[in-house]
Design goal:
mainly alpha, 77% helix, transmembrane, membrane
């Protein structure tokens, strides 16, 4: 038999792990972009760029200074909470040991 099947199995498992984690990180990153794009389309007064990732605290300050209806502010706050939670989960995932290797190899950085 030899070691070839063992090496192939371990290599396949490592590749599958890498692809799964990379897919998960990419989904979280795309969700962050999508939420900001939806917010910029819903309320153009904020001056957000649809493709950029912006800090939720900066968006929150813009909302406080902008003159918006109460329903618009509530909707914005809901989206900002989602942005903050998604960013927290993404950054925590990148800090953990096996996942930070995948993030470093694939080129993912903190949001």
């Amino acid at each position: 038999m030899g070691f070839i099947p063992l090496f192939l199995t371990v290599g396949g498992a490592c590749l599958l792990f890498f692809l799964t984690v990379k897919n998960s990180l990419q989904k979280r990153h795309n969700l962050q972009r999508e939420l900001i794009a939806n917010l910029s389309l819903a309320i153009p007064q904020l001056g957000l760029v649809a493709g950029e990732i912006t800090d939720p605290e900066i968006i929150l300050q813009k909302i406080k200074t902008a003159e918006l209806k109460k329903s618009q502010k509530e909707e914005c706050l809901k989206v900002i909470r989602e942005l903050q939670i998604n960013r927290l989960h993404y950054n925590q995932l990148i800090k953990k040991a096996p996942y930070n290797w995948v993030a470093k190899i694939a080129g993912f950085q903190k949001i």
